[in-house]
Write a structure and sequence with these properties.
This protein is about 45% helix and about 15% strand. Helix 2 packs across helix 3. It is elongated and about 90 Å long. About 40% of the residues are buried.
Length: about 475
């Protein structure tokens, strides 16, 4: 049995830390969801595919995980887009929420236990804004809203190491007001400005939530004032996640609000940030018209989760070839039926080393390197001319089953294309005989046997790494 000692990089401490949940084997994780005003794109996929795989790994190694994600279904962007389209903001948000959830389903992202719409938690948002006001952390600007005073929270900036904006920050939702006490103060509750604008009654007056407060209101509702892991893209570190910390720690008086902060690296397209204006904006829907979900998941997971990724069309050739190598390997090992077990240690070491890399900050590039080295070693064993015995059925089944476990985490293999075969002993003997004749360069006899195999309902394909058998019945 493999013992796991999982470490993850924590943005808060700036180093790898052993994962020790607050409540034993139970893990609470929240990841910032999308603002539903447009179609989801491959930049979103970068974050959500990673956390989907990470949560599935946590579950596979024995943790009980509750994965919560919000959906921002009302904010300035949604109101502006709805006005532009001449539709109701709630209808626009609902339409794009459906597009988002469809994209998640298409990408086999199914580890989220709860999607929480912001407007379903207005009561909790108002409660947080009121408590912050009562404690002296917030103030009112007439005709504008209720603002958080960052000067009252002495640890503001501890996540990012700063208190002012930088080029990489998510700047689209900074709250501008000439009457703010401090430049970095942010809005908790926005007063209603126009008659058609969605609003709710509150002790402060009619209005709607600010962006930062929806997340802490939702997580407090489900997790309480402290929980294990908060995730999102790097662009959310400041000011969004900094604001969340200042809100919740001010309300509760408890530290830390979140034990581990995990931030995914940026995704660029052809070296540039995605933008509709320069024509490199790729929606998930458009991507899946050309490539499979397995290819997108592999593309994103073959890079370290916190490192940047640059997408280009040429990289998809490498992705396709890599996945074909895995599929061919899994097809090939199904015909193995030796009684000799010569690779037990190699298989055991493969499992240990694969998990070892995942336990070290979920290092998928190194884990996948271990996997491809294993495939290479087994292929070399099978292709040795003197090796007529091959793998035992027990070894072949153990390998196949472990790749199924890998796929349960990453979703990178299309097992429908590989379909596990039950090959009769007679056919396996024919396959081995054909291999023997090919090694002897007796092509006529090898071809005669190939025809006999096809009569039995199976097709033999010769690849650079050996024979593959398919059912043609």
């Amino acid at each position: 049995m493999i013992t796991h000692n999982l470490k993850i990089y924590n943005t808060l401490s700036g180093k790898k830390e052993k994962l020790k949940p607050i409540k034993g084997r139970k893990i609470t994780i929240f990841v910032c969801g999308v603002t539903v005003f447009d179609f989801p794109h491959i930049g979103h996929a970068r974050t959500y595919i990673f956390f989907d795989s990470f949560v599935k790994y946590l579950k596979q190694i024995g943790f009980n995980v509750f994965y919560l994600q919000n959906i921002t279904n009302l904010d300035d962007k949604i109101i502006a887009r709805a006005r532009e389209k001449r539709v109701e903001p709630k209808n626009l948000a609902l339409a794009f929420e459906k597009e988002y959830l469809k994209a998640m389903k298409d990408l086999s992202i199914n580890s989220v236990a709860k999607y929480a719409r912001a407007t379903s938690y207005i009561k909790e948002i108002i409660s947080q804004a009121k408590r912050l006001t009562d404690k002296g952390y917030a103030y009112k600007i007439d005709g504008d809203g209720i603002y958080y005073d960052i000067s009252k929270f002495k640890n503001y900036g501890k996540l990012s190491g700063r208190t002012v904006l930088a080029a990489e920050d998510s700047v689209s939702r900074i709250d501008y007001s000439k009457d703010k006490k401090n430049r970095g103060d942010f809005c908790l509750w926005k007063f209603k400005q126009e008659e058609a604008e969605p609003s709710w009654s509150s002790p402060f007056g009619k209005g709607r939530p600010g962006w930062h407060i929806e997340d802490t209101a939702i997580t407090e509702k489900f997790f309480g004032s402290q929980y294990d892991i908060h995730g999102g893209g790097r662009d959310l570190i400041f000011p969004h996640h900094e604001a969340e910390i200042s809100q919740m720690e001010a309300i509760s008086g408890k530290k830390p609000f979140v034990k581990y902060w995990m931030h995914t690296g940026f995704l660029t397209v052809n070296g540039q940030k995605m933008s509709k204006s320069i024509g490199n904006f790729i929606t998930i829907s458009d991507f899946l018209k050309r490539y499979s979900s397995q290819q997108l998941r592999f593309l994103l997971m073959k890079n370290l989760w916190r490192s940047p990724i640059n997408y280009s069309e040429s990289i998809m050739i490498e992705v396709r070839l890599s996945l074909e190598k895995i599929e061919e390997f899994l097809q090939k090992i199904q015909i193995q039926n030796s009684k000799s077990q010569k690779n037990s240690k190699l298989i055991k070491d493969f499992k240990i080393n694969f998990y070892k890399e995942l336990d070290d900050d979920f290092n998928t590039p190194k884990a996948f390197a271990v996997m491809f080295e294993f495939i290479k070693r087994i292929n070399e064993f099978l292709e040795k001319e003197e090796c007529s015995v091959g793998l035992s059925k027990k070894e072949a089944d153990e390998i196949y089953n472990f790749f199924e476990k890998i796929n349960n985490i990453f979703g990178i293999i299309d097992f429908k294309k590989i379909k596990k075969l039950t090959i009769p002993l007679e056919v396996k003997k024919l396959i081995n005989a054909r291999k023997k004749y090919r090694n002897e360069q007796n092509w006529q006899k090898a071809d005669e046997i190939r025809i006999e195999i096809e009569k039995q309902g199976y097709l033999v394909e010769d690849t650079k790494t050996g024979q593959i058998i398919k059912n043609i019945k």
